[in-house]
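Appendix B: complex inputs.
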Amino acid sequence: MEIKDVQRLAELARIDIPDSEAEILTHDLDAILGYIKQIETASIGQGDGLPCGDTPNTVRDDIAEKVSSSVHKSLIDNMPQVENGFLKVKKIL
Amino acid sequence: MIDIYTLTIQKAHDLLKNKEVKVKDLVSAYIAEAKKRNEKINAFIEFFDDLELSIEEAQKRFDEGSATTLTGIPVAIKDNLLYKDHLCTAGSKILSGYKASYDGTVISLLKKEGAIIIGRTNMDEFAMGSSTETSFYGNTLNPLNEERVPGGSSGGSAAAVSMYGSLFSLGSDTGGSIRQPAAFCNLVGLKPTYGSFSRYGVIALGSSLDQIGPFTHTVDDSEMVFNALSQYDQKDSTSVPNKKRDSFKKDLKKKIGVPYHFFENGGIQEEVLQAFNKTLSELKEEGYEIIPITLSYIAYSLPVYYIVQPAEASSNLARFDGIRYGLQEKAENLFDTYAKTKGVGFGKEVRRRILLGTYVLSHGYYDAYYGKALRMKEQITKELNSIFESVDVIATPTTPTTAFTFGEKSSDPVSMYLSDIFTVPANITGDPSISIPIGFDKEKLPIGLQMIAPHFNEHLLFSIGRDIEKITQE
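Resulting structure:
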């Protein structure tokens, strides 16, 4: 791994990583990847895509459920920036 | 005088039922000890100060005769279990100030039983770790030897019970995070079958691997907590209906499978192996058959785990971005709000695992790593299931060594990960697994024996576990 690879991963993951840490991470990730790479040699035949097993997907009806006012208040209280009961965020466009 | 050093849940229940002790006295005795020891041990991040009402209600239930086994019993909960209106931070700076807006289902069940939730316990940040050295709130020490780690990631929950600060506690186990600290702290630690305890209201690390479970002093206590909390929950889409669980039940054959080949690579402390072998030969005298087995794929469990878990973690932790809750770092634009908040809010180990997860899920590597790991997961599960045709449980030492010292493994990530080598298979397959104390090494550090049973056969773990307890107490 090189620093630019780590920086690319950091960008994908949306985490600020200073260059000094990125340097250390190249070694850490190389060591870890070196260890996990051994699954390449495991012979279990070729699969197609991801195995999903035979368990069915569990879904509920798409019906909005009202929450209690105390839960609603708790959600608002946790928000870092609130305006008129709405979560305030940075401009997207 | 309440002797908290010899209590079990059953004994405490009897004392309360026979009116020899009041709930508030029982709880006070534990809290006094907890606060005293916590000064050094740092098992608890916070003691809750709102216990009066739940204590009153529990006492009322005893007065009216409607108390159940867990009523009035003090319990400590890991800092990743949502308890409404209480702080919950997963041992992380990024959730500073976050108050749970709802109760997780296991918490609702504890409340329904009338257990007294006395505080939240320390943990490796976001449950990533095997030593409780990565928490934003500092290290937790092993109550049996303060130079040693209590294990992780549920180190605080283990230490809380081990130091007699609580009669039982709840932790979470994704790769061994209940069983390993239980072994390090001389406790019984249970990871139930995947799908048996609800994960609703548990801050997720690896959604296909996580399970909540109890730390207790005895197997009987573990079984009592298991019976109370092992319930189907509609709100957890991976929760298995109670009726379906019964269809898996097997009878005890008194046959224990041991994958001796798995220990032959070295790296296991001699005394751990000795205690393990001694317990097995004593079980033979109790009529058990010890059968050597071969598990060709088991050695791949750890690399598979360190692909699947970081991959799932990178997805699960994406939500902690400074927008809806917790820490928010000031920035010029939205992207920088995310990046700065995560850079400041996540610790080193968490950042490392998120990047690892991002890598194994990225274009060009996805199939070679994540795809292959999932196929291996299936293969390992199949292999264990076929072995369970001929044995009740598979036994190994819980950990390759007894509790290590602080800093001993924290500079080499792979060496830290290797301490999970015996525990991760049960998370990969979803099988239930328990760690039971079987003795001490010459430094007086506890040794644990681990058993893995087939899905929904915790009763086999409890049965054999009780026999192990009998043996080791003699």
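Chain A touches chain B through 47 residues (CB under 8 Å).
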